Amino acid sequence: MDEDPIADELPRVRYDVLESHESPGFIVEKRPYIEFSDSRTLTLEERHKLRTLSSVYAAAKIMELDDEVSKEAARIALELYKRWHSLKVTEVIAIVLAAAAEKGVAVTRENVERAYERLTMVSRGRPVTPTGDVFNEIKKKFMRVVMELNMKIDKDGLIVSYVNILANAIGADDASRMPMIVLARSIDKSRPAYSAAAAVEFFNYMMRLDRDSESLWKMLWPPVKRKRFLIDGASVSVGAGDVKAPEPKSRTVTVVCASCGARLFSVKHKPPSPVNYDISQIPFHVPAVCPHCGARLWNGNRLMIRSVKVLYKFRHNGNEVMLIRASALMPKESSVAVREIERLS
Ligand SMILES: [Zn+2]
């Protein structure tokens, strides 16, 4: 191992305390220069390394990532610095994103944009707003980082992390997130961001929260131009029994009692045009108790959810559309808080 005090010590130097601040063993005079107490000055190589690492920390901080992810990103950056000899802004961002993905932490598109603006401001003296080409380059570099270091992405962690970010955005309470996570896992485990957005969108519609689901899709990294999952049909079993939701039919919303299986509500959506329709125009009507067996379906404003089946239309890049069935059995006592309860009189 080479005796490199910068490589060994730098994770202690935090970007936010980098200006005229003492650190063990050396004094940071002015970023990116470090002057040692014994008046040795940094080599050019060390200065490059320091600049790279402070960029990594800055990017991680802007992306709201914790110390664990920052340290991992610094480790990856040093490893790749050895191989590539310098790191560009897009590579630094890709490295931080790779560290986050490895730890199962989702990053929003907005935070990637802000990190890019900040790093270009440091390196070029002015913030540069990233374009689609920049996004594509970051995506490519991300894949290169992951492949070169043979990294493993925590996709399940990413699903949970994305659901939390998106659930915050629509103002969902903590307890309502479990059903979202369970549904997201059943959609497509290999697509954490899409699956989380599709699941949160479904519950957004059910819970009568923020009706504007397009904004959810705009939060995703990598960016999507338009949403890829369209809710085509849904069936839900509510209450505390063991009856599962029936197979969903296209453009139909169905609710059944989880105790006796009685059909509580079923509506087929007749769209204004066969091309352009939105199933979320159908309101969910669930009575307070099942009229057939008397089972309780609501707990205050919380609708008890036993199982959910959703039919999605998934749009590929080239506009090819395929149907995806998601089926999720919820843990007992799962529920979601509904903002405006619409009950049948
Ligand atoms: Zn019933």
Describe this structure in words.
- By secondary structure, the chain is an alpha+beta fold.
- It has 10 helices and 10 strands.
- The protein has helices at 5-9, 44-62, 67-84, 89-102, 109-124, 132-148, 155-170, 177-187, 192-207, 214-218; strands spanning 21-23, 26-30, 33-36, 229-238, 252-257, 263-268, 298-299, 302-315, 321-329, 335-337.
- A hairpin with a 2-residue loop joins strand 1 (21-23) and strand 2 (26-30).
- Helix 4 crosses helix 6 (132-148) and helix 7 crosses helix 8.
- The chain is elongated.
- The structure holds zinc ion (ZN).
- Residues 257, 259-260, 262, 290, 292-293, 295 line the site of zinc ion.
In short:
By secondary structure, this protein is an alpha+beta fold. Helices cover 40% and strands 18% of the residues. The protein is built from 10 helices and 10 strands.
Please give the structural blueprint:
Layout: H1 5-9, E1 21-23, E2 26-30, E3 33-36, H2 44-62, H3 67-84, H4 89-102, H5 109-124, H6 132-148, H7 155-170, H8 177-187, H9 192-207, H10 214-218, E4 229-238, E5 252-257, E6 263-268, E7 298-299, E8 302-315, E9 321-329, E10 335-337
Parallel strand pairs: 4-5
Antiparallel strand pairs: 1-2, 2-3, 4-8, 5-6, 7-8, 8-9, 8-10
Helix pairs in contact: 2-3, 2-4, 2-5, 3-4, 4-6, 7-8, 7-9, 8-9
